[in-house]
Predict the structure.
Amino acid sequence: MEHELSPATLVELRRPRPYPAVSVLTPTHRREPDNAQDPVRLRNVVAEAKKQLETDPAVTRERRADVVRQLDQALAEVDLAHAEDGLVIFAAPGEHQVWSLARSVPERVVLSDTFLTRNLVSAQVAEHPFWVMSVSADRVTLWSGGADRVTEEYTGGFPLTRRLVENFDAEREERTGGRPSTFSDERTRQFLREADTALSAVLRELPRPLYVTGEQAALSVLDEVGSVTKGAVHFPHGGLAHGTAEAVWRAIRPLHEDEARRGTAAATRELQTARGRREFAAGVDEVWQNAREGRVRLLVVEENYRIRVRDDAGDHLIPAESGDPTAREDIVDEIVEQCLETGAEIRFVPDGTLGEADGIAGVLRY
């Protein structure tokens, strides 16, 4: 199942496809007893997708058979034992993908000529993704971090490794009174310089906040020879380049949570300042109106804020009842995607942070 949504992947997912491009969404659960319902719900929503394919007169018999086959293959690839909070299946003639999301999604089936990507986009932003680069003299490892874990990333040449060669210099040891640090060796410095260069290519493709871990001597060398690593948050902690994902997460989690708290405080201050300048929007309808006009510069959303709405004659959003066929279940994700399209910064904050703003607010450009 897929997890990482890069800009290039998003462009590929959004390209037009031969009709029908099927998007199947269903909420999933990480723990018992809620996860007991997941297999049944998944089978039912896939069956609904097949039913819609069967009854759609625009779908030829050949296309229907192809897409049904893709749905069956996707269903076989789903691993509910490692489910997160949402699951998305994309199927079109000749292709399929399965995405696991750390954010809930509404249960729905959409047939179109493009895949429905807004829920993927919103889930990616809500995870506060980041990078961790762990360095040592003989190995540099890259980790991809999210809301509750890190995983090793095998991209851009990572992990970088080299064989350490003992370079004993008796005359130098006699002059200095001891052996030089491994990190003062020019070959080690060059190795870390290469790691910095490799990381810059990764950040160009997928920019995120960056933490760098390693012995203090290694971090000092990166300060001298690096470029992109100079602007990172440095964390003196050796051994993680050869460590496990669990060890890296335990080490970096307190630092990451501190950074998240500072980000929440900064967003709250910006909202307060914007209110004084009358560049402030609050509530789903007001924010939606401004998002459509490209006026939102900073969007702030509480992490578990959800609301079901419907259009009121196309001018305003009003609350909708459960089961209303005209309801928009994922309006928050729509707003997030729209704001990203117009270059806004998105910040998810803990529930209750926004108070009277009712779960969602924005700083306006004008």
About this structure: The chain is about 40% helix and 20% strand. The first strand starts at residue 21 and ends at 27. The radius of gyration is 24 Å.
